[in-house]
Amino acid sequence: MNNSILKKGVLVLFMFVLGLQTQAQTKNITTKALPRVTILATGGTIAGSGESATKAAYTAGKVPIDILLSAVPQIHDLAKVKGEQIAQIGSQDMSVEVWLKLSKRINEIFKENSADAIVITHGTDTMEETATFLDLTVMFDKPVILVGAMRPSTAMSQDGNKNLLDAVMVAASPNSKDKGVVVVMNELVFDGRDVTKTITTSTSTFQSRNFGPIGLVYDGKVSYYYQSLRNPVKKFDVTKTTSLPQVEIIYGYADASPVTVDALLTTNVKGIVYAGMGNGNFNAAVGKSLENASKKGIIVCRSNRAGSGRITLLNEVDDAALGFVVGDDLNPQKSRILLMLSLMETSDRAKIQSNFFKY
Ligand code: ASP
User: Fold this and answer.
1) Are 359 and 330 within 8 A, CB to CB?
2) Which of the following is catalytic: 45, 121, 137, 196?
């Protein structure tokens, strides 16, 4: 064979191999650049299925995660996404058992470094409680995002696909680190500590009544505006926990009788959150029963039924004399979670009160 033809052949082969290599490297860089997001599915309306696109009736938690993900192919441009089914329930059935499973799995994923961020699909009814539970028990500062929908995936006005896309966008954003657990709904980002469901059926149901959303998701961009100074200084390690101390909530109203508090005194309850009137107030009869509870060693935590604001110590109620603690600005359902977790470690009132003032 002619020498120059051979040289040309070697050159062409060299260029070809080089080309292949560069292509592989570019591919690698592109894949590497995408953050790894694990989606943990728990059910809810976002996975709900109804009989028709125009009827409101549906069953929550029916659609598995693979189908949910296949409906939003755009998320694969934002992240390397993996889905895992943790539960398939309406979030009205959320339980300590599922919270522990979820929290343990998240801690495990971050510990083994198999994801950069986690998105949890969840029903909206108790999303705020799960957000608080995870905020207090996930030991890593990587992004954890809860997302749901108010309309099932089969409805004409379904909001789940867009919410899911936004949630993955928040998960993939480098600015989402150190924000604690957040909720992404309706193009808004909320601090998991503050967020609450405020309207029974509207897509604009989520609000942080005291402090507002911390960010916006719009037109493919995430913009943060505020960050809480109260994100957990203290975390609770539940990696080996199998159950939590029992804490119940009692609702306050005019002329309430003490029977519900008295009934709790016959159980194994370790804490009572009292959703009081105004600044956490109760009438004389209920007050007497709460005082009895406190004398028996049950931690009584005053919260509010007003929906916003905070409970102040020693205003109309002599908390020091009664041995009560206050839930600060946490609503009753969030106060219950912090009280359960606190009681896991201590029954010292001063320490529990300090947990409420620090979180
Ligand atoms: N009941 C449903 C749930 O919480 C409502 C929803 O997801 O919007 O699972």
Assistant:
1) yes
2) 45
Question: What's the rounded Cα separation, in Å, for the pair 64 and 340?
Answer: 31
Per-residue confidence in pLDDT tens, the chain, 359 aa: 455 555 555 544 544 544 445 454 444 444 468 999 999 999 999 988 887 888 778 888 889 999 999 999 999 999 999 999 999 999 999 999 999 999 999 999 999 999 999 999 999 999 999 999 999 999 999 999 999 999 998 889 999 999 999 999 999 999 999 999 999 999 999 999 999 999 999 999 999 999 999 999 999 999 999 999 987 778 999 999 999 999 999 999 999 999 999 999 999 999 999 999 999 999 999 999 999 999 999 999 999 999 999 999 988 999 999 999 999 999 999 999 999 999 999 999 999 999 999 99
Q: 207 pairs with which residues across the strands? A: 196
Q: What are phi and psi of 124, to 5 degrees?
A: -85, -20
Q: Is 30 labeled as catalytic in the residue annotation? A: no
Q: Which domains does the chain have, with CATH numbers?
A: 35-224 (3.40.50.1170), 247-358 (3.40.50.40)
Instruction: Among 45, 185, 200, say which to mutate for ligand 1: greatest number of ligand atoms within 8 Å of CB.
Output: 45
Nearest by Cα to 99 from 134, 65, 127, 125: 134
Are residues 28 and 18 in contact, defined by beta-carbon separation less than 8 angstroms?
Answer: no
For residue 53, the CA-to-ligand 1 centroid distance in Å is 17
Amino acid sitting at position 161? N
**Nearest atom in ligand 1 to 150's CA:** 8
Ligand 1 neighbours, Cβ below 6 Å, are 44-45, 60, 90-92, 123-125, 148, 150
Distance 232 CA to ligand 1 centre (A): 27
